[in-house]
Design goal:
about 450 residues; alpha+beta; 6-stranded mixed sheet; 5-stranded antiparallel sheet; 15 helices; 22 strands; globular
Length: about 450
């Protein structure tokens, strides 16, 4: 069966978008994305094209841009294109080139999608990319959640070519004379993915010629196994966990008899901030006497007679509060907080006691805590310049008694808001923001 027919069948079976809706293709000018564009064109699927010129390869990047624009003109396809001063952003944000380019690309793609009403963003990831991702995750030790490879769909981003191997794409380009350009940076093993692609995967293929197909078949099975795994974990949770108010009670004897014990302990307690390294200590609690405990940044597991009790760390003991459910009203000391989701306001009020945070940038758990020495953030409006809170307070001439009572809101160990002072640049609202977290302090 031809690649085009397989593509059409896959598009119809997956039903990524409603029939007749237009999608936005991310096209670089390389063979993968140019073949993808040709498949959409030949398949009579409504689409437009988006091209980013990161201006990192001089004339070569300009020729990539020229190729994409010429193709769109010849085929009467709507095109959006942008040029980024990527190097300037690297210096401004103090991030690596790849990370900076990725942030610029996806933020612009999403803004373009929303502005023009496209149903989804489409990328040209294929089966080889999927196999490379699996190998990288496997060797990095990400666990079962890392073995499902690249998701076919992730929010508004879809990847309809994951079924196709690189050899299929190359053959299609040759057969249909698809114009494309080679990116010289793909020939260097400087980056991890390129190293896997150029060195590791070919070495494996010498022994296992069908490794890409086999790994992609395994990815499908791993994805299905992950579903069963999560169901089994949820069944164990229902059998073991007794909810009493805000606390969780787990019978010690029941838990000690479960198998595999370490895996069940990890899955039960990981949502409360406990790490794999703490699992042996949790198991030790099963043999300990009453009063023994271990803590995460947000919770404590206490051995109390016949139970392990999971409870939120008290604010007056460690100055931590976990924001577990929103909307929420929380009092710490003399401060009252109200958390609620909302749409981004048309005008952000000039009020240091109100913050609007881009929910797309937030990761659980959210932690409200007192600031400590060594804390830093990226003050809003300072172009991603990192600053220690101690220096920020000094520059603002904040008195000691006020400084000692400053709290911060933390998301995945990153400060999102210095309460009553300033938001972090990484969490600000953008034109593409669709949902915000509103926090009011009184």
């Amino acid at each position: 069966m031809s690649l085009l027919q397989r593509f059409r069948d896959n598009w119809r079976q997956k039903a990524f978008v409603k029939e007749g809706q237009t999608v936005l293709l991310a096209v670089s000018g390389g063979i993968d994305s140019m073949v993808m564009a040709q498949l959409f064109h030949a398949g009579n699927i409504p689409f437009a094209i988006a091209h980013c010129n990161f201006q990192l390869r001089g004339e070569e990047a300009d020729k990539d841009e020229e190729l994409v624009l010429d193709w769109c003109k010849q085929n009467d396809v709507p095109v959006h294109h942008v040029r980024f001063d990527t190097q300037a952003k690297v210096e401004e944000w103090k991030k690596g080139i790849q990370e900076t380019a990725r942030i610029l690309r996806y933020e612009w793609l999403e803004a373009t999608r929303q502005e023009h009403g496209y149903a989804a963003i489409v990328t040209a990831h294929h089966a080889n990319d999927n196999a490379e991702t699996l190998l990288m995750n496997l060797f990095k030790g990400t666990g079962i959640s890392g073995l499902h490879g690249i998701p076919v769909q992730n929010g508004q981003i879809i990847r309809p070519l994951l079924f196709a191997a690189k050899v299929d794409i190359i053959a299609y380009a040759k057969e249909h004379s698809v114009a494309y350009r080679d990116d010289a940076s793909n020939a260097t093993d400087k980056y991890l993915r390129n190293d896997v692609r150029l060195n590791l995967l070919p070495a494996i293929e010498n022994t296992f010629p069908n490794v890409v197909d086999n790994l992609n078949n395994s990815i499908q099975r791993f994805s299905e196994a992950e579903i069963l795994y999560k169901r089994a974990v949820e069944q164990e949770r229902r059998k073991l966990v007794q909810q009493r108010g805000k606390d969780m009670y787990i019978p010690v004897r029941k838990l000690a008899l479960r198998e595999p014990l370490a895996t069940i302990c990890y899955e039960l307690f990981a949502p409360f901030g406990f790490t794999p390294a703490q699992v042996p200590h949790i198991i030790e609690l099963l043999k300990s006497g009453s009063g023994h405990f271990i803590s995460s940044p947000t919770h404590r597991i206490i051995r109390d007679r016949e139970f392990l009790i999971v409870t939120t760390v008290a604010t007056n003991e460690t100055d931590f509060v976990a924001i577990e459910n929103i909307p929420a009203a929380i009092t710490v000391g003399e401060k009252d907080f109200k958390f609620a989701y909302c749409k981004p306001p048309a005008v952000i009020p000039d009020n240091n006691n109100v913050a609007y945070i881009n929910t797309a940038k937030l990761e659980q758990p959210l932690i409200l805590r007192r600031w400590k020495q060594g804390d830093y953030f990226y003050p809003l409006g300072m172009s991603m310049k990192k600053k220690k809170l101690s220096r920020y307070f000094m520059d603002k001439k904040i008195p000691l008694h006020e400084k000692e009572n400053v709290w911060v809101l933390e998301s995945n160990k990153r400060i999102a808001w210095v309460v009553g002072h300033r938001l972090d640049e990484r969490f600000k609202l953008t034109p593409a923001t669709t949902d915000a977290l509103e926090i009011k302090l009184s």
